[in-house]
Amino acid sequence: MTIALFSGSIDKLTGASIILGGAAADDMDVEIFVLMQGARAFLKDVAGDPAKLNMAENPEMKEEFLASLDRLKVTPWMDFFKEAKKLANVRIYVCGLAGKIWGGNELSDFVDMVDDIVGIGECITSMQESDVHLFI
Amino acid sequence: MEQEELRNLNVDKSVDARATACPGPLLAAKKAVRELESGQLMEVMSADPATKRDIPKWAQKKGHEYLGTVEEDGYFRIYMKVK
């Protein structure tokens, strides 16, 4: 599976993490290419802090959304990503351009679960070779 | 298997995933099954109703034998035999 993760919004990241969890349980190989807005969410000083992430839809309901996640005991998106990497072959790549837009110039600017900084060519090749493609 | 038979099973591993929502129980099952040998029994406890369908389907795909589900007060016990 290849996921082009464009969004850096908390609702879409949560959705992506749930899909990723299911894929990992199914032993799928997953390559995630973090593009544009997504790259910001993986910066060390942003990731893991819901206050720094917006909602893609119904932004006025962010607090309610977060409260519901908490009430329903939904694992935070970052933790699902980490768990999926432990359980299956999941690779996370940040688009070099997207990283630079948000001040992430080096791999060390991003959270540890990011495997590398790549160009769009890798993303395209992965999509050509993969059976399942998602754009989130 | 009948509910009573399931309740009387001596499982080799019990996974309590009641504190997590989908896909937490599924991931907990996947993690736990690695610690078991072929033929051993596992139960997964989940409070997420979606798990009642998810785990049997996952078990079938992975070649484990789904034995059945017991409904408790506010959660489920899902039983399987590891392939």
Could you characterize the architecture of this molecule?
The complex is a heterodimer of chains A (about 140) and B (about 80). By secondary structure, chain A is an alpha/beta fold. Chain A has helices at about 10-25, 35-40, 60-70, 75-85, 95-100, 120-130, and strands spanning about 1-5, 30-35, 90-95, 115-120, 135. A 5-stranded parallel beta sheet of chain A has the order 4-3-2-1-5, with helices on both faces. Chain B has about 80 residues and is an alpha+beta fold. In chain B, about 35% of the residues lie in helices and about 30% in strands. Chain B is built from 3 helices and 4 strands, in the order H-E-H-E-H-E-E. Chain B has helices at about 5, 25-35, 50-60; strands at about 15, 40-45, 65-70, 75-80. In chain B, helix 2 (about 25-35) links the parallel strand 1 and strand 2 (about 40-45). The longest helix of chain B is centred in the C-terminal third of the chain and has 12 residues, at about 50-60. Chain B is globular and about 30 Å long. The model of chain B has no long low-confidence stretch (mean pLDDT about 95). The interface between A and B is medium-sized, with 15 and 14 residues.
Most extensive interface, residues per chain?
Answer: A-B, 15 and 14 residues
Rg calc of chain A: 14 Å
As laid out across the biggest beta sheet of chain A, the strand order is 4-3-2-1-5
For the terminal residues of chain A, how far apart are their CA atoms? 13 Å
What proportion strand of chain B? 25-35%
- Quaternary status of these chains? heterodimer
Q: How much helix is in the residues of chain A? A: 40-55%
Q: Got a strand count of chain A?
A: 5
Count of runs of 4 or more consecutive helical residues of chain B: 3
Helix and strand string of chain B, N-terminal first? HEHEHEE
Helix content of chain B: 25-40%
On the 0 to 100 scale, the average pLDDT of chain B is 95
Low-confidence stretches of chain B: none
* N-to-C series of helices and strands of chain A: EHEHHHEHEHE
